Amino acid sequence: MTREEESAVILKVQQGDANAFEALVTAYQKQVYNLALRTVGNPEDAADLSQEAFLRAYRSIGSFRGDSKFSVWLYRLTTNICIDFLRSKGRKPTVSLTMENDDEEVQELDVADDRFDPEENFQRAELQRAVQRGLNALPEEFRTILILRELEGMSYAEIGEILNLEEGTVKSRLFRARSRLCDFLKQDGNLPDSYASKTRKGGAK
Amino acid sequence: MPNCQYEQQISLLLDGELSGRDASLAEAHLRTCADCAKRYEEYQNLSRLFSDTMAEPPKDFAKSVMAQILAEEKEKVVPIAEGKKKKKKSAFAPLLATAAMLAVIIGVVSMAGRNLPTEASLSQNRTQIVETQQAAPAEESEPDGEALAAVLSDDLDAADVSMDTEGFAAVLGAGVPQSDDETTAEIRALLKDGTETDAPEAEPVCTLTDQEKETLVWIDGEDVIYTEDGEHFLRIENLADTLKALLDLD
């Protein structure tokens, strides 16, 4: 969906065409779900929270003015919902039981992907858990910034807009978060060079 | 862990957040500092790790979201009969607030319609809006049903509701936090204009409590109004008829 097409869809929804909203859900569901998943750490909560994010986006789409990107607006909503969720019960993000359980992981984990053989899927599941553990070990204000950058490709200015932070703050926190996560993963041998070269060949994004 | 003062620059370079000159400097540094070159590669690996371990959303996620939205959409339409029963208070306070606001606007718009909008009549109308807005917080009240009835019976039919939906939105924008920037700017300009003019004082048609004003969200230009009471949006179709029915004007 080009930005023009997206604007047209948004306008339709704003004018009362609820069905038109589906195109936006389809376009952003993966990003929103992964944002929630990385923030709270388990698939069940992530599914609920991303659903909530889309519902709220729909309800308040009248207030979307198009002076920022729709994605920025949507991720801001999603991030707030996830952070509220974590804060409301003093929760910590988790690595879910299904993610932890080695016996069931191949069928339970939704990272399985046809592009990879079973061994690679296994490896990716391992890495996904490792990334999550590393993210969970970061303070929330570091974690969210890194997720928005690495997962959603947001610029520093956009991250600042999403989290109400000065760009300078984004800059320093992002660097520290990245540096810490990198060290965390290296320590456990989960940032292997070979992994990178392998997936490069596989044509992963 | 490498401990080079350039390390943060390396991270910025990866994110494309360095200007042309700074980027060239950082790239030059990468060619001479083995620690930073290694770190740069690690950062790249980390980024790839994020994208390669992205999960798929649950099956039928979009469908389930849409089902919930469409179900909510159905609930939002307020049947006229139900509106009558509950009238005045509680759940319909936002609706009444809306009706009150509308009555003001309808009055204004229909006046404009009659006189055909000369500059003078417009600024007079603007002044009336200002007066109403200013007077509003002073009294605590629910909208005065009789005053509304009077205004509505007098002006509702005369006013061409569909004709001036943009005007409605603009006027409503004054009391609404979520209106779009342009509309807000426009109405601010109108209001400012109005106060500076030497126009006769206008009596407020009715008053709204601050809370009631906050509950009003917007009119989307299709004879549909949205109000919000905390969580819920109400969507009322056939606005004019609904209001008449609600205020027993039939």
Question: What can you tell me about this protein's structure?
Answer:
The complex is a heterodimer of chains A (205) and B (250). Chain A is an all-alpha fold and 205 residues long. Chain A has helices spanning 3-14, 21-40, 43-59, 70-88, 97-100, 105-108, 118-136, 140-150, 156-163, 167-187, 193-202. Chain A folds into 2 domains: 1-94, Rna Polymerase Sigma Factor, Chain: A, CATH 1.10.1740.10; 100-205, Winged helix-like DNA-binding domain superfamily/Winged helix DNA-binding domain (Arc Repressor Mutant, subunit A, Orthogonal Bundle), CATH 1.10.10. Chain A contains 11 helices and no strands. Chain B is mainly α and 250 residues long. Chain B has 2 domains: 7-52, no CATH class; 77-246, no CATH class. Helix content of chain B is 61%, strand content 6%. Chain B contains 12 helices and 3 strands. Chain B has a 3-stranded antiparallel sheet with strand order 1-2-3. In chain B, strand 1 (216-219) and strand 2 form a beta hairpin. In chain B, helix 1 packs parallel to helix 3 (34-52). Chain B is elongated. At the A-B interface, helix 2, helix 3, helix 7, helix 10 and helix 11 of A face helix 1, helix 3 and helix 4 of B.
Précis, in short:
The complex is a heterodimer of chains A (about 200) and B (about 250). Chain A has about 200 residues and is mainly alpha-helical.
What is the rounded Rg of chain A? 18 Å
- What are the segments of chain B in which pLDDT stays under 50 over at least 5 consecutive residues? 81-90, 107-179, 190-208, 215-234
- The Cα radius of gyration of chain B reads 28 Å
Distance between the termini of chain A: 18 Å
**Tally the helices of chain A: what do you get?**
11
User: How many separate domains of chain A?
Assistant: 2
Query: Which percent range fits the helix content of chain B?
Result: 55-70%
Strand content of chain B: 5-15%
Describe the main β-sheet of chain B briefly: 3 strands, antiparallel
Distance between the termini of chain B: 80 Å
Question: Would you identify the CATH architecture of the largest domain in chain A?
Answer: Orthogonal Bundle
Strand order of the largest sheet of chain B: 1-2-3
Topology order of chain B in helix (H) and strand (E) letters: HHHHHHHHHHHEEEH
Global mean pLDDT of chain A: 84
Shape descriptor of chain A: globular
Q: Helix- and strand-based class of chain B?
A: mainly alpha
Instruction: Report the sheet-strand fraction of chain A.
Output: under 5%
Q: How many domains is the backbone of chain B divided into?
A: 2
Low-confidence spans of chain A: pLDDT under 50, at least 5 residues? 97-109, 194-205
